[in-house]
Amino acid sequence: MPLFRKRGGEPIDCPRCAVQLKPESVKKFGPNVLIDVCPSCGGTWYDKGELAKVLEDRSLHERLVSFPSSGKRSSLACPRCDSEMVTRSEGDVEVDSCISCTGVWLDRGEEIGLKAKLDLERHGQTSDFAGDAVFYSLITGHMR
Ligand SMILES: [Zn+2]
Ligand SMILES: [Zn+2]
């Protein structure tokens, strides 16, 4: 592991399997969001603010990265800055976030869980998304 702090935009390694993450562009309104996906375990790294853009929900993101002391200590180190991360639960989803750079690590499929939860909060039901989520999680590793 390098001792220097990596700057944003440089390749980073998966905090679980130490494989280099692959940048992947997510189409959103406005500029595309460049997230980092692990080709091995399918986890995704979101630098500061990126998850809010992908989920199109700033308040959830802020909840995930605020009050780091209330989360339990994660077994993972931040792939971006090597700082400690904390784990917290959002419904069924366990989210690891960095207390220093506020990046967020999601294991494979967790983004879907977050979206389903958001749906639930907004509309009182998971709408069609929960069904799609199962399908998506099956194909997510192969999707371009
Ligand atoms: Zn991985
Ligand atoms: Zn960090």
Describe the structure.
This protein has 144 residues and is an alpha+beta fold. It has a domain at 22-107. The chain is 27% helix and 24% strand. It has four helices and seven strands; from the N terminus they run βββααββββαα. It has helices at 50-55, 58-65, 110-123, 129-139, and strands at 22-26, 33-37, 44-46, 72-77, 84-90, 93-98, 104-106. The protein has a seven-stranded antiparallel β-sheet. A hairpin with a 6-residue loop joins strand 1 (22-26) and strand 2. Helix 3 (110-123) packs antiparallel against helix 4 (129-139). The longest helix has 14 residues, at 110-123. The radius of gyration is 15 Å and the shape is globular. The model is unreliable at 1-7 and 133-144 (pLDDT under 50). It binds zinc ion (2 copies). One zinc ion binds next to loops.
Structural class by secondary-structure content: alpha+beta
Beta strands, count: 7
Helix content: 25-40%
Order of helices and strands: EEEHHEEEEHH
Question: Which geometry do the CA atoms define?
Answer: globular
Our count of helices gives: 4
Strand content: 15-25%
